[in-house]
Amino acid sequence: MAAAPLYCVCRQSYDVSRFMIECDICNDWFHGSCVQVEEHHAVDIDVYHCPKCDVQHGPSLMKKRNNWHRHDYTEPDDGSRPVQAGTSVFVRELQNRTFPSADEIMVQMQGHQVTQKYLEKQGFRYPITVPKLDGLGLKLPPSSFSVRDVEEYVGGDKIVDVIDVARQADSKMKLREFVKYYYKPYRPKVLNVISLEFSDTKMAELVVVPDIAQKMSWVENYWPDDSFFPKPFVQKYCLMGVKDSYTDFHIDFGGTSVWYHVLWGEKIFYLIKPTQANLALYEAWSSSPNQSEVFFGDKVDKCYKCVVPQGTTVLIPTGWIHAVLTSQDCMAFGGNFLHNLNIGMQLRCYEMERRLKTPDLFKFPYFEAICWYVAKNLLETLKELREDNCQPPAYLSEGVKALITALKNWLKREVTEPASEVPDHIRPNRLIKELTKEIRYLEVSKPMKSQGSGGCPLTRSTLDRASHHARRTARRLRHHHHHHHAPKTPSNLEILELHTRQVLKRLEVGPFEEDAPFSSTVTAKFNKASVASAAAVERSLDNNLRLVMCHVKKLNEVVPLLAGLCREHPTSLTTEEEAVEGMLSMAGLLYPQRPEESSTAQEPWWSSPSSGSNSSEAWGDQSPSRAASSPLCLDPSPGTDYQYCETTLSPPLHPSKRSAPNTPPISNQATKGKRPKKGMATTKQRLGKILKLSRNNHFLMASEDAAFCYLVFITSLGDCLVLV
């Protein structure tokens, strides 16, 4: 291989990360740092002479300034071209304009009032200003902290992004070079540093972000320590701007909210509300070729002016369009954070960035990845609230809906743009499906307790960490206990399953195939049994429920078999045998013993409430072991639905620790997407309830139908036959 060409006085190969300039005499390339030419200076050079050539040809020739209102100051000043943003003429005109006061929209608060509880209740839709530091939980260096101090804590070799304000152009330079520029008695240019993130430096120890930003932050709440993607650091920025620095209208990346504190100096914000109309105008303006020549504040109904003096903190919500003018030399600290209150707007801003083809440098790092993490955690939150019979706040349910739509779109996009940010341990399709199920449950369920009433906990981000983890740990322990102490002795229902398989074989029902997906409709002819595809997907979970459904028309051929099985085992009744006898009794083929026939016989648990054994009073008389083995009571009265009575001795597992979802054994296209009539339980709902209540118990329920019945075998925690 040929050796890589060498450049510059240092004779090194090309390095894409280092700025270089070409000599117009010898045509060799030189590192700016080797020949003392800053990147932002290079644009002012018309003809460059390297150190060797300028001995013979003289110094480099500089461009001649012809105007003060254009980014390219060499353009002729003939009055034909409009003023561009950031130029000295633009800044002077901006300072002379009048705007409606931001007092109309700003919410002024004391630090201790800015709490998550307040924002969850009132919403976070308008900017908040806090005149004093007290109560925010924000810790900063003293107001005497200087630009030189920043260099000392961060390091002079740190490469920083610097904006040449008059050209609205970005360049890079070492921090020490910016410090030298800052302290010059005469500054030939207006340079602005707004993106120095210092979380990885010694200066990070001097700053503690506001409590509200820490507690609400998606990154702090949901980003896992073992993530494959690097953790985004966007919470600690130092902004150093000289007088007349200007940042044109923008929305903070990913629709993040921002906290902003002026340590010394002054900033002026120009704020525009993110209405649908304004966002549409903003997108059109951002993509227009003459963007820099149009002041966006003139395109909207109202652009508010907000002066932020020294010592003041502002919080700007999701999506607010704003420009910033530095009216005097200024140092400020700020940070960005995503949160649950405005999920829909955050996603909208992100999608707008994609349409505008915003460079990755100016986007929230791994925005899609964190959305997947958030979706996983919010699913858990929704399940917890449902278990507690609590209605989630509107901002959360609406946010999850927006999140579902975005996640679906991102999955579709991956087909053509395979730059996936789906974390490895997340099953995207299953996650979307379960989130959708939770939202549908909210839409069809009866009114529940609202947040904050009757002891309802707030959303996960507001739960006390210790109690939240204690709750999850307790559920995990219950889950572990149930799995390791389940009875291992074979049950009569295992024999029942074997016999039933033989009968089904005689009925020409094909073999059970665990991996066959369910058909969308149930047909009269079965050549092979079906298995829920969702159940197959769940096979890798801790507890593996396998659902096999068969359509049996000849009920009379199966039921005698069951009766014969019970007669073959005339021992004392176990719960399983009681269940079998109960089914036969309801089928009219077997009747419970009369009290006079056996004075010691217990009333079986399937008896109707009128018998007194399973009434609400009778439940209280049961011993713990008896109650634990009878998780529900059935009322098989003609024309009525089963009545479910849960005990409190076996609390349901934590949603994230459940063995399998309550997946229906069949997907019926005729009912897909339709809601059941009020007060009527669907087969899916009944089966879901049965599965939930039967996690640690064996039971059997039956209801005869003249035409057919469904046999559902559940084989994992102990065999169980359900006829619905």
Automatic annotation (TrEMBL):
Cofactor: Fe(2+)
Main location: nucleus
Domain PHD-type span(s) in chain numbering: 5-56
Entry keyword set: Chromatin regulator, Dioxygenase, Iron, Metal-binding, Neurogenesis, Nucleus, Oxidoreductase, Transcription, Transcription regulation, Zinc, Zinc-finger
Subcellular location as annotated: Nucleus
GO CC annotation, single: nucleus
This protein's record includes keyword Zinc-finger: yes
Molecular function GO labels: histone H3K27me2/H3K27me3 demethylase activity; histone H3K9 demethylase activity; zinc ion binding
Biological processes per GO annotation: brain development
InterPro entries: JHD, JHDM1_Histone_Demethylase, JmjC_dom, Zinc_finger_PHD-type_CS, Znf_FYVE_PHD, Znf_PHD, Znf_PHD-finger
Gene3D superfamilies found in the cross-reference section: 1.20.58.1360, Cupin
Chain residue ranges for the region called Disordered: 447-491, 594-632, 644-683
Biased composition (Basic residues): 468-487
Compositionally biased intervals (Polar residues): 659-671
Highest rank taxon of the organism: Eukaryota
Family the entry assigns: Belongs to the JHDM1 histone demethylase family. JHDM1D subfamily.
Protein name: Lysine (K)-specific demethylase 7Ab
